[in-house]
Amino acid sequence: MPDPVITAAASQIATCRATGQVPVIRTFFDIPTFTATHVVHDPATRTAAIVDSVMDYDPASGRTDPAFAQEIVDYVTAEKLKVEWILETHVHADHLSAAPWLQERVGGKLGIGDAIIRVQGIFGRLFNAGTRFARDGSQFDHLFHDGAQFRLGTLPVTAMHVPGHTPADMAYVIGDAAFIGDTLFMPDYGTARADFPGGDARMLYHSIRRLLSLPDETRVFLCHDYKAPGRDDYVWETTIGAERRHNVHVHEGVDEETFVNMRTARDATLSLPNLIMPSVQVNMRGGNLPEPEDNGVSYIKIPVNQA
Ligand SMILES: [Fe+2]
């Protein structure tokens, strides 16, 4: 059975490459969290989307730092871009989103996958977030389903649900470029972990197989890079062809069982990201801090002996 979402995305990519209708992409790399924030725009209309923004945060002092997010605002302003979307590929566990801070300054609708509701259920319980924390995705302006199509200016966009790292991961295919979040990393580094609450290595394998069935020439933009051994620079762009042939974890020929065994064994050796507690509590609220307490201050909780 052909996958209709892949068929639609593949034909979009082929058409955009044939007609030269491709986005301009500028990436900003946040070194403290190893995150790539992409500003994508349609050169015909200057309509833009910001994918996976970062608000830096010092957990020792509990202070946010908008310097990196300000670089995005400066670029958008200098390039006279009209921000229509602020997109999240998922609820990140390693950095805080700058989405609401950016939205106040440059506008745009905040979008994420519709499975966010499951993620809010899981983390709402884990953090005992109470009845004031809505678990219906209402903190976001739009929830995308698998196969959702829209336009960024004149550019066609297809959203794909690619769960596994978390239940709600999305990839956004904009023109000929796929923003794939935490699924694949650079071919020499491998794949995202699948051991967070709601993660599933088998599901991740299937999502990656879907991505790898896009055309070889698809430009691929990653959410993170950690430099692979022997590589000195951060890199965040590759192609589906390069991933299919060379990805160290999941190149062509790696079957599901081999991948799941490798991923599960590797995940057992990884420690949790430094910023997992603040990141999850903020990002499940669309990048907003938890509701302030009666003294007007927001607090980040840590469940002791739980996670
Ligand atoms: Fe992530």
UniProtKB/TrEMBL annotation:
<dbReference type="InterPro" id="IPR051682">
    <property type="entry name" value="Mito_Persulfide_Diox"/>
</dbReference>
<dbReference type="InterPro" id="IPR036866">
    <property type="entry name" value="RibonucZ/Hydroxyglut_hydro"/>
</dbReference>
<dbReference type="GO" id="GO:0050313">
    <property type="term" value="F:sulfur dioxygenase activity"/>
</dbReference>
<dbReference type="GO" id="GO:0046872">
    <property type="term" value="F:metal ion binding"/>
</dbReference>
<keyword id="KW-0378">Hydrolase</keyword>
<keyword id="KW-0479">Metal-binding</keyword>
<dbReference type="GO" id="GO:0070813">
    <property type="term" value="P:hydrogen sulfide metabolic process"/>
</dbReference>
<dbReference type="InterPro" id="IPR001279">
    <property type="entry name" value="Metallo-B-lactamas"/>
</dbReference>
<dbReference type="Pfam" id="PF00753">
    <property type="entry name" value="Lactamase_B"/>
</dbReference>
<protein>
    <submittedName>
        <fullName>Putative metallo-hydrolase</fullName>
        <ecNumber>3.-.-.-</ecNumber>
    </submittedName>
</protein>
<dbReference type="GO" id="GO:0006749">
    <property type="term" value="P:glutathione metabolic process"/>
</dbReference>
<dbReference type="InterPro" id="IPR044528">
    <property type="entry name" value="POD-like_MBL-fold"/>
</dbReference>
<feature type="domain" description="Metallo-beta-lactamase">
    <location>
        <begin position="34"/>
        <end position="224"/>
    </location>
</feature>
<dbReference type="GO" id="GO:0016787">
    <property type="term" value="F:hydrolase activity"/>
</dbReference>
